[in-house]
């Protein structure tokens, strides 16, 4: 086996398609069988369209929504509006991940599914990794890509510093229908200690996803519904969504311990991709594009190593440098922007100021998005 990819989300599936297309023997270990829902804003910047086309995975057959406008509301309901220079598309992870999975199967990628990776160790003498699956099987790939998401027990085993730091954030996602919502708009609505995003996906559905804190949840009895009624409904735009929308499944998808702390793109000879390498704040709306772009960078570095154009140290140095050059500034800007929102007073002031400064809004967007690749 040339490459084992731990995690079959966007980054893992794109890297599998990329490396298989370059002639390498690729396997993916994923914990859950497809299709399944993930907590995700489900908006993708158009910067990824050329790459997906090169992978033979243009999402057009899924009927994604075309998105070209942005709105941001303060907790009291004041609204900032701006065009999206590059634009994007909306598609559910339920549909997109399944689509990429089927493409990867057709390309000859092997899947361990469902499978949990219990441990990864590098054997320097053999020049390979020893990867232990929870069912007792052991794999020996030459290259390992870690594309397993925001936080996993594998981070503990790899002794990644961020894992020891508790994160206050949790994410909640629904799919819904909401007559009258413009399908070309992605809207972000602030509330105390959080913000929510809503945008169209395939069919006549919308993705409604929000980030808040465990403390916000705890303060309202530990139930999502009570917190929504007491906190989110104070923003009139969010109150209208909850009152007027048809929610398409009875319970939301929820994820805890979302960390925006800096991470390293290479850990113990594992090339990290997607959220495992670094997570941009949802307010910046570009995590899915970053996952795909990171897969492209990791695949290029791994290919040069497997083709014996460079050694392992060269592969790791090249990938870490490319990753930092492409995403380091985006993540720093994202963390800074995050600090402007969540508190009612500061959020109101930020939205009020930015409404009259459209050049600043577009400059921030450019700093958190990349060019087509």
Automatic annotation (TrEMBL):
List, alphabetically, the InterPro entries matched. Answer: FAD-dep_OxRdtase, FAD/NAD-bd_sf, Geranylgeranyl_reductase
Q: Which Pfam families does the record match to this protein?
A: DAO
Q: Where is each FAD dependent oxidoreductase domain found?
A: 2-35
Cited PANTHER family: CONDITIONED MEDIUM FACTOR RECEPTOR 1, GERANYLGERANYL DIPHOSPHATE REDUCTASE
Q: What is this protein called?
A: Flavin-dependent dehydrogenase
């Amino acid at each position: 086996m040339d490459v084992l990819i731990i995690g079959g989300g966007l980054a893992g599936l794109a890297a599998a398609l990329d490396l298989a297309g370059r002639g390498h023997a690729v396997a993916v270990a994923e914990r859950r069988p497809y299709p399944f829902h993930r907590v995700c804003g489900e908006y993708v910047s158009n910067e990824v369209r050329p790459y997906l086309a090169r992978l033979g995975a243009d999402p057009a057959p899924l009927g994604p929504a075309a998105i070209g406008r942005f709105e941001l509301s303060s907790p009291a309901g004041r609204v900032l509006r701006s065009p999206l220079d590059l634009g994007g598309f909306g598609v559910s992870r339920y549909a997109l991940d399944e689509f990429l999975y089927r493409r990867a199967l057709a390309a000859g990628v092997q899947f361990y599914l469902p499978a949990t990776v219990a441990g990864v160790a590098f054997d320097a003498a053999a020049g390979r990794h020893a990867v232990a699956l929870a069912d007792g099987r052991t794999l020996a790939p030459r290259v390992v890509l870690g594309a397993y998401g925001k936080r996993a027990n594998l981070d503990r085993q790899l002794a990644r510093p961020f894992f020891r730091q508790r994160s206050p954030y949790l994410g909640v996602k629904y799919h819904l229908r909401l007559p009258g919502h413009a399908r070309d708009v992605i809207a972000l609505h602030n509330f105390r200690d959080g913000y929510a995003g809503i945008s169209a996906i395939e069919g006549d559905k919308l993705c409604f996803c929000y980030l808040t804190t465990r403390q916000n949840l705890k303060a309202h009895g530990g139930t999502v519904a009570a917190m929504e009624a007491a906190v989110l409904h104070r923003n009139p735009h969010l109150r209208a969504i909850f009152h007027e929308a048809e929610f398409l499944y009875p319970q939301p998808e929820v994820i805890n311990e979302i960390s925006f702390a800096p991470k390293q793109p290479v850990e113990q000879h594992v090339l990290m991709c997607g959220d495992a390498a670094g997570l941009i704040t949802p307010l910046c709306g570009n995590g899915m594009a970053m996952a795909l772009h990171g897969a492209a960078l990791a695949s290029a570095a791994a290919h040069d190593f497997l083709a014996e154009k460079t050694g392992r140290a060269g592969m790791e140095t090249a990938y870490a440098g490319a990753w930092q050059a492409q995403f380091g500034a985006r993540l720093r800007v994202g963390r800074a922007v995050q600090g402007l929102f969540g508190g009612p007073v500061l959020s109101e002031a930020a939205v009020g100021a930015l409404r009259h400064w459209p050049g600043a809004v577009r400059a921030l967007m450019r700093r958190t998005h990349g060019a087509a690749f």
